[in-house]
Write a structure and sequence with these properties.
The chain is an all-alpha fold. It has 13 helices and no strands. The chain has three domains: 74 residues; 70 residues, 434 Repressor (Amino-terminal Domain), CATH 1.10.260; 40 residues, no CATH class. About 3% of the residues have low confidence.
Length: 203
């Protein structure tokens, strides 16, 4: 698929392939998971998956909203406090603790140069576009790899689910985004969703 493929076309092809392969749409197009990967509200993901449009917003509004989500997720994942994050950004990027806190809380919009460095700091996909892209483009970005994998002649359901839940990249980076225990829990959940239950003959 070309990057210019629209979300509507991506969803159309995904629905076709999900039907052809006998997959569950909820497993492939899971709003909570997609919300985490895009930093979009789950309600917006739900609207987009139904073929509806997201409410119009400005680039500064997108940046502030997604920066707040990304920062909160980072704090939850690392166990750090906002003051720790602000101090880290001060040390690495040379911005004041106060400004760093306001940006991370979604109260101030960073300039283009700072946004570039923040994208690198949080290791988000697609660099600054992660924060600035319209909602439909942001969702399309994370769905295209899934579509490409499903379009492969030997699509592996387990690999597909692992990619959907971001397990492969988190495990390979070893950047502290997931602890070993979290990886194991996700893997158990993935395996449980694709392997037959005990007593299931598979017929």
């Amino acid at each position: 698929m070309e990057p210019s493929t629209s979300l509507s076309e991506t969803l159309r092809r995904l629905d076709e392939l999900i039907s052809e392969r006998g997959l569950r749409r909820a497993d492939i197009l899971d709003p909570p998971t997609l919300a985490v990967r895009t930093a979009l509200p789950e309600t917006v993901i739900g609207r987009l998956l139904k073929g509806r449009e997201a409410a119009p917003d400005s680039v500064p509004e997108r940046v502030c909203a997604r920066m707040k989500v990304v920062s909160a997720a980072y704090l939850a994942r690392t166990g750090k406090r906002m003051s720790d994050l602000a101090a880290d950004l001060h040390a690495e990027l040379g911005i004041s603790d106060v400004w760093a806190r306001m940006v991370c809380e979604g109260k101030k919009t960073p300039n283009v140069d700072l946004l570039h460095h923040l994208a690198a700091y949080f290791r988000v996909e697609d660099d600054e576009r992660f924060f600035t892209a319209p909602a439909d483009e942001a969702l399309n970005r994370v769905l295209l790899p899934t579509l490409r994998e499903l379009e492969g002649s030997d699509a592996d359901p387990l690999a597909l689910l692992m990619r959907e839940y971001g397990l492969e990249s988190a495990h390979m980076r070893q950047d502290g985004s997931m602890t070993r225990q979290q990886v194991e829990r996700v893997l158990r959940g993935v395996l449980g969703s694709v392997l037959p239950q005990k007593g299931d003959s598979g017929t």
